[in-house]
UniProtKB/TrEMBL annotation:
InterPro entries reported for this sequence: MFS (IPR011701), MFS_dom (IPR020846), MFS_Efflux_Transporters (IPR050189), MFS_trans_sf (IPR036259)
Keyword Cell membrane: yes
Pfam family, one: MFS_1
Protein name (database record): MFS transporter
Compartment(s): Cell membrane
Keywords, comma-separated and alphabetical: Cell membrane, Membrane, Transmembrane, Transmembrane helix
Family annotation (CDD domains): MFS_NepI_like
Spans through the membrane: 42-60, 72-93, 99-119, 131-156, 162-185, 211-231, 243-263, 275-294, 300-321, 333-354, 360-379
Highest taxon above the source species: Bacteria
Organism of provenance: Paracraurococcus lichenis
Main location: membrane
Ranges for domain Major facilitator superfamily (MFS) profile: 6-386
Gene3D superfamilies: MFS general substrate transporter like domains
């Protein structure tokens, strides 16, 4: 792997931003109690993070292409860490919401820009494997953020997770800056550095670019915002599990995702990109059907682990293809992919919620299964294989 790609540090940066997104899962009741608001009102803290996280993609990609992807990502990590520390010291609810928006804005710039730098530095044949190693940080955040923050809050109050993660994030940002040294300030602005926001038009003029954005939107609609976020409530409302049990079951998804990061090289060599799209997509459709028909919660628990593996088999190929959608402005291309995913996620959560009122959890999971099967077939047909 090229020396210009400190993949372990990149993974740690991914861990910090992923943990920053998921850390509030067990903390909302405690925060609501301290500031005298309801848990429903406290969800503004979640929206306050997620909306800027998605919308910053419009600007982060072109800015990274112009000024240097790692330079902007490193600065974003440090500013994100400062926002976390300030959140732990917040004295009012409105101020905490504003600080969550600050954190979401800077966290959203990190993953796409670091992934684009990986693509600039690693040949395509090795890129998906390298990206899978980079994503280990995000996967571990999904597994650990909720439980660790819950334990810290239980013994030291809800502010402690913000302070601990803030210090960790600043340390990671400092290590990244030190490792890169002069290269950080020299930047890695590329051939498309002068195009700015116009690079989005370049991307959309290409049939492959339009196809990739559409597939990313559907991916977010059916999975990120559709089926996945509702598995916990499915366990609680249909199978009578409590919140802690549901959280542990859902964490099984991260185990499957971690298995993918370890097996990516073998899977890619064995099946190729088209094969992973087909197997991953078909596996997702089958497993969502299993959820819809599950007679007991242990079936859901087992399915969650395999869902994590199948999802990253499918999604990992799309992420790698995004790095080649506009090679002269990769920051913009990966940012556009992330933005399309976010917009699909937002629409999918509304659509799935509406589906619950019409056909219930089982019917909504079946509908998602059919949609994912169609998406997998479409993705296989449209994928460009290197």
């Amino acid at each position: 792997m090229p020396a210009s790609v400190p993949i372990a540090l990149f993974a740690l940066a991914g861990f910090s931003t992923g943990a920053g997104m998921r850390m509030l899962d067990p903390l909302l009741p405690l925060v609501a109690g301290e500031f005298g608001v309801t848990v429903a009102q406290a969800t503004a803290l979640v929206a306050g993070f997620v909306l800027p996280y998605g919308l910053v993609q419009l600007f982060a990609g072109p800015l990274g292409d112009r000024l240097g992807k790692v330079r902007i990502a490193c600065c974003a990590v440090l500013l994100f860490g400062l926002g976390l520390l300030a959140s732990g010291l917040a004295t009012g609810f409105a101020g905490l919401v504003a600080l969550r928006a600050w954190c979401g804005f800077f966290a959203g710039a990190v993953i796409p820009l670091l992934m684009a730098h990986v693509a600039d530095s690693v040949p395509y044949a090795e890129r998906q494997v390298t990206i899978s190693r980079f994503l280990t940080g995000m996967v571990m955040a999904q597994l650990l953020a909720g439980p660790v923050c819950g334990v810290l809050a239980q013994y030291a109050g809800w502010r402690m997770p913000f302070l601990v993660l803030g210090l960790l994030t600043l340390g990671i940002g400092g290590l990244l800056a030190r490792h890169l040294g002069a290269a950080l300030w020299r930047g890695d602005a590329g051939r498309g550095a002068g195009r700015g926001m116009a690079a989005y038009l370049d991307l959309l003029r290409r049939p492959s670019g339009r196809w990739l954005m559409a597939v990313a939107f559907a991916d977010g609609f059916l999975l990120f915002g559709g089926a996945f976020p509702f598995t916990g409530s499915f366990l609680i409302e249909v199978f009578g599990r409590n919140a802690a049990e549901a959280g542990l079951v859902v964490a099984g998804f991260g185990l499957g995702a971690f298995a993918y990061t370890r097996a990516a090289r073998h899977l890619l060599r064995r099946f190729g990109e088209r094969g992973l799209l087909t197997l991953g997509g078909a596996g997702l459709a089958v497993l969502l059907t299993v959820l819809a028909l599950a007679p007991a919660w242990p079936v859901v628990a087992a399915a969650q682990v395999v869902l994590g593996l199948a999802f990253y088999m499918f999604h990992g190929v799309l992420q790698t293809l995004a790095t080649e959608a506009l090679p002269e402005a990769r920051g913009t291309a990966v940012g556009a992919f992330a933005l399309a995913l976010f917009l699909g996620q937002s629409g999918g959560s509304l659509a799935f919620g509406l589906g619950l009122t019409v056909v219930g959890y089982r019917g909504a999971f079946l509908a998602a299964a059919l949609g994912v099967l169609a998406l997998a077939l479409w993705a296989r047909r449209g994928a460009r294989v290197a």
